[in-house]
Specification:
This protein is mostly beta strands and 116 residues long. The protein contains two helices and eight strands, in the order E-E-E-H-E-E-E-E-H-E. The protein has an eight-stranded mixed β-sheet.
Length: 116
């Protein structure tokens, strides 16, 4: 049996931009992507703490150390700059694998940068 398990989480990042006129996705600072083990094109669940919206899209890297978190395309209608988000990815694995698996959890600072 395979189950879905949290693989990666970026906890409480702020939206820096919402770009309706883009093909789609979420742009995430590449440093945050690497720290959380999220790869380009991976499906990301987005939870908006400000308005309760939940949606899914895919990740694309933004400039390193920029703090960029931009919702693109239709998803831009679900956020506003300054909204606080939780970004989550999942992996499928056996129950035995899941018992020993440790997700990559990232808690950025107020500027969406990694804490030193």
């Amino acid at each position: 049996m395979q189950i879905h398990v949290v693989k990666s989480k970026i906890h409480r990042v702020k939206v820096t931009n919402a770009n309706l006129n883009y093909i789609g996705s979420i742009t995430i600072d590449e440093d945050l992507m690497e720290a959380s083990n999220i790869i380009e094109g991976e499906k990301v669940q987005i939870v908006n703490n400000n308005n309760g919206e939940r949606l899914e899209t895919y990740a694309i890297p933004g400039p390193r150390n920029s703090g960029e978190i931009t919702l693109n395309g239709a998803a831009a209608r679900k956020v506003a700059p300054g909204d606080v988000l939780i970004l989550i990815t999942y992996a499928m694995m056996s129950i035995d694998e899941a018992r020993n698996f440790k997700p990559a959890l990232v808690f950025p600072n107020e500027e969406n940068n990694l804490l030193s």
